[in-house]
Design goal:
This protein is mostly helical and 110 residues long. Helix content is 72%, strand content 0%. The chain has 5 helices and no strands. Helix 2 crosses helix 5 and helix 3 runs antiparallel to helix 4. The longest helix has 26 residues. The termini are far apart. The relative contact order is 0.09.
Length: 110
């Protein structure tokens, strides 16, 4: 029905302008993107570029398949799969454990 379609379009524009383009939400998106990029770069250096990691940054269940993967492409896919399965909270905690130097061990570590 045309009336329903028109109302849906209005609601879509309102949501876009008031929610998705709001500075606070965009700032959070920006922060999340930076965190994921930093995590990926650290994991790329340890797991994709090296055949054997110098440090163990991932849980065993994620790390073992990466170590035995046949090539860089397969290792990259596994690293990306691990990152994409993280919840927002888990990504934040992983980033905090690896990069936060502000005050001792991470609370979830001790």
């Amino acid at each position: 029905d045309e009336e329903v379609r028109r109302k849906a379009e209005i609601n879509k524009r309102i949501a876009l302008e008031l929610v998705f383009r709001a500075p606070k939400l965009q700032q959070l998106d920006f922060k999340a993107e930076l965190m994921l990029e930093r995590l990926f770069e650290a994991l790329r250096e340890q797991y994709i570029e090296r055949e054997k990691p110098r440090l163990h940054l991932l849980p065993d269940a994620a790390e073992k398949p990466i170590i035995v993967a046949p090539d860089k492409r397969a290792r990259a896919r596994l690293v990306c799969d691990w990152l994409s399965n993280l919840t927002d909270r888990a990504a934040f905690q992983a980033h905090q454990r690896m990069f936060d130097t502000s005050g001792g061990p991470s609370p979830d570590f001790v």
